[in-house]
Specification:
- By secondary structure, this protein is α/β, with parallel strands linked by helices.
- It has 10 helices and 13 strands.
- The strands form 4 sheets. It has a 5-stranded parallel beta sheet, with helices on both faces.
- Helix 3 crosses helix 4 and helix 3 packs antiparallel against helix 7.
Length: about 300
């Protein structure tokens, strides 16, 4: 699919992923996706319409009614197939990711691989779904707990890790029996769409994953939707506060990971060159948008 760009040239347009199908949006608002290294317009991404968001939520809700009944080992086998495909396409994903983030190839490959590691954990979901049983917790009383999926979950992800952070979210949620709506950063939608195509190739049932695009109005609509049960977010502090407030005001479970900065404790016997190398990597790696501890 193509769309006329700002310089009268044709660029690819980013579809939505609704009900297991890649769908061209009817949006009137489009955003350029650019390569930060040279400002080349790679594609244009739509701000999804209200009808498209409603379609995504309904598909996720309808699919949940059957997906939650699928046996846990079958869900795990889907993730086994998915991690295999991600590994087969690791370098291709890294090239795509690098083009829309400006990361070096080494950094892009690390982004993809950290996401794959989480999918590997999703393939071991059975151990995380185990409940507990306690006999004689009181006289003639036994106690047990079971773990059940919530329903439709929402993930809102940032621009700095387009593979790793979405893969933190939807594989675990879906393997647990939920369905998922992903709203990736409008700056880096291409990696998310490729993750979805590989998930489809792995045999994911139609409707377990939806992808919608947009900005604050689209997010606000999703956060207010009564069919969405839980929200995960990674991003800046002001946006995290806003999303957490909106989600909890609408009685949703919310986990919001807000911006932070690397920290380092340097011991007297530390190797000087290693410290310098780690300090530089921590400060400018991922264009300075990294909030994980240095080695």
């Amino acid at each position: 699919m193509t769309h006329t760009g700002t310089e009268s040239s044709e660029v690819s347009i980013v579809p939505l992923f609704l009900g297991g199908d890649f769908v061209e949006s009817n949006s009137k608002k489009w955003i350029d996706v650019t390569n930060p290294a040279n400002n080349q317009v790679l594609a244009q991404v739509p701000c999804a319409t209200v009808d498209e968001i409603e379609r995504a939520v309904k598909s996720a809700q309808d699919t949940f009614e059957t997906w939650k009944e699928v046996a846990v080992p079958e869900r795990a086998r889907l993730m086994l197939r998915y991690q295999h495909l991600l590994k087969e396409n690791h370098d291709e994903l890294a090239v795509l990711l690098s083009s829309e983030t400006g990361k070096t190839m080494a950094d892009a490959k690390g982004d993809v691989w950290r996401g794959i590691e989480v999918v590997e954990q999703a393939a071991n979901i059975a151990s995380n779904m185990m409940g507990e049983f306690v006999e004689n917790v009181a006289t003639d009383i036994d106690s047990y707990s079971i773990i059940q999926p919530l329903g439709v979950c929402l993930g809102i992800t940032p621009f700095n890790f387009p593979a790793m952070i979405p893969l933190w979210m939807f594989p675990i949620a879906i393997a647990s029996g939920n369905t998922f709506i992903l709203k990736p950063s409008e700056q880096v939608p291409l990696t998310a769409m490729r993750l979805a195509s590989l998930f489809e190739q792995a045999g994911a049932p139609k409707g377990v994953l939806q992808i919608v695009h947009g900005q604050e109005p689209q997010v606000a609509h999703l956060l207010a939707h009564p069919s969405i049960q839980a929200v995960s977010f990674v991003g800046s502090v002001p946006v995290a506060k806003s999303i957490y407030q909106q989600a909890t005001d609408n009685f949703k479970r919310a986990q919001c990971f807000a911006g932070a900065k690397n920290h380092m404790v340097i011991m007297p016997d530390a190797d000087k060159q290693q410290v310098i190398s780690n300090l530089v990597g921590a400060s400018i790696g991922a264009a300075g948008q990294r909030c994980m501890r240095s080695p």
